[in-house]
Amino acid sequence: MIRYQKPGQPEWGTSTVHDISTGGVRFLCEFSVEVGTLLDLQLVLPALPKPVLVQGRVVWTRLAQARLVDLGISFQAPQAEQQMITQAIAHFLRTRPRRFMKPVLGID
Prior knowledge:
Blueprint lengths: L1 E4 L7 E3 L1 E4 L3 E6 L8 E6 L8 E12 L5 E8 L2 H17 L2 H8 L3
Antiparallel strand pairs: 1-2, 1-5, 3-4, 4-7, 5-6, 6-7
């Protein structure tokens, strides 16, 4: 699961992660976002005890179903934080149950 918001905005959106890697994430968003926009993100990964907090930059968008927007996000973090995020996501990808892969990550 991912929570997202535009910096400085009070509302958070929630979505299912469709794809994730150590460099970014893809999910459906409830509001329109321009390419280049920074978003505050909270990645909730089952293998980790607390959410991973990071900023992400929108690198592409496309219209999806029922007023949703499909977003491609590149993680933006200082070097030290990026290493922690990379390790957390790599750990998640290595340790998640196989049954978890299809619905959350879209992997066949």
